[in-house]
Each structure stands twice: as structure tokens, then as C-alpha cells.
Amino acid sequence: MIEENETIEEFLAQHSADVEEAVRKAAAAEIMPRFQQLAEHEVDQKSGPHDLVTDADRLAERFLTGALSALLPGSVVVGEEAVHADPASYGAIRGDAPVWIIDPVDGTRQFVNGDTGFCTLVALAQHGVVLASWTYAPALDRLATAVRGQGAHLDGVRLWSGAPEPGRDLEIATSHPDYTTQEQKRGLLGLWTDGVAPRSCGSAGLEYLAVARGELSATAFSWEAAWDHAAGILLVEEAGGAHLTRAGEPFRITGGNALPFTAARDTATARRVAGLLAGGA
């Protein structure tokens, strides 16, 4: 728990392990017991047949909301499922209080299908700046963390994204067509060119991790919900990568971005992809 007059940086130095424990406990209590065991009544649609939510999403978010709020009194939570129930609650991301940004099950479709490609995403931000993030793939038992100015790590090992190999096509994970409007598809058209190999993304959080690990050249996404991007954006930054909107500006978790935007292994790749996105818009 944060002490009186303790800064967020001091809180993180003392309590990052407590946040990690909360994330692991939420997954162990609410997500993994339902993995490959979901009953029909535990799965619902939100906006349509591709936009799924499960009891695991709701209960894991409730667990994390309680645990993280207790760790950092005075903080607020912006969680995907809570915002779905009360869209106005998203505005807290632009307030003065420290904010926990939570996606309890990122890659719900994969989770529902019994695929291991899902994760839990937690980020801590204040004044629109992401200060720390946790990306946990419970079915794989892999945890990536990042603290601003202190690097990114996967299972305790430092991550360096590096630069794509010269002369090779850029492999770019893009917004999945099932979740993309016709206008958004048009914004991504610039990626269909020589030297680029776009493919549909899976879990956004795991795609960001792939960029941070140097396994994927870049992402290109056409939506800006902070719970999908906050954790991964910091992870990529702290691994040496960069992110830019099609207007050539860094992505802002508070919104108002010129979409689509990219997160890439290095600055040169980010600029190249942002240029292609600007040309396709």
C-alpha cells in the first residue's frame, strides 16, 4: 500500500512485485479454471458476434479492481468491462489521479476457442503517461513487465527489440478484419505494398510483446481503446522501439489520435510504417 507522501515512482519500486502477484492471482482464480472449460452460459456477445465477453473477463477485472485499488489508495480503475457497462467511466484516464488500465482477458476470442494466445494486461498511468505495465499470458505462464526509464523484461530477462534485418519484408500485425470498419480498412491499405507483409493480429498485448522481443517488425492498429494499447506501448518503448500515428505523432492513451497508428521495433521502422499509413488514409 502506498504510504503518505510516497511518489508513484517510489510506490513502483516497493510494490511492483505486489502488482505482479495480483495479476497472477486473478488469472489463477478467475481465468485459468475456465480455460477450455467454458459453459455456454458463461459467454456473451457485446456489440456483435465477434465481440465476446466471458465470466472470466468480468470476474478477473473485478478481482484486479479490488486488489489494485487497495494497493494504491486514491487511484482509479479504467477496465474494459466496467467501461462497457458505464462508458463515462473512461474519462478517468484523463484525470489527475493515478489510473489502473485493465484488460482482464485480451484475446477473448482465442480464450473462448481454447487457444493459448490470450493475456491479461495491466498498466499504471498518470496525466496521460504510462508509468508501468504488466503483460501476463497465463496459459503460457509468461510475464512481461516494463517501468518507464527502467527497461522491459520478460520473465526477468531484459528485452531489446533491435531493428528489422535489412532487405527483409516488414512483418506487420494489423487490425483484424472482423473488428474493422470499411473506413478503417482503407486506412490500412498503404501497408499492401512491396517490402511489407501484413497479417491479421491476434491478442494485441501478445503482438506488442512480439515487437518488444524482436519477433515482429511492427503493429498497425486502427482503434485506440487504452486497455488494448497502454501496456504494450510502454513495453515496446522500453525495449527500444517507438510508436507513431499516421500524423507522425506519438500515440496518446488519452485519445484523439490520427489513426491508424504503429508500434515498431525501432524509430526508423515506425517512421516508415507511419508514412505508409498516411499514404493509405
TrEMBL record:
Record has tRNA processing as a keyword: no
Enzyme Commission numbers on file: 3.1.3.25
InterPro entries the record matches: Inositol_monoP_metal-BS, Inositol_monophosphatase-like, Inositol_monophosphatase_CS
Tagged with keyword Nucleotidyltransferase: no
Highest rank taxon of the organism: Bacteria
Catalysed conversion reaction: a myo-inositol phosphate + H2O = myo-inositol + phosphate
Class of this enzyme: hydrolase
Keywords on record: Hydrolase, Magnesium, Metal-binding
Name of the protein described by the UniProt record: inositol-phosphate phosphatase
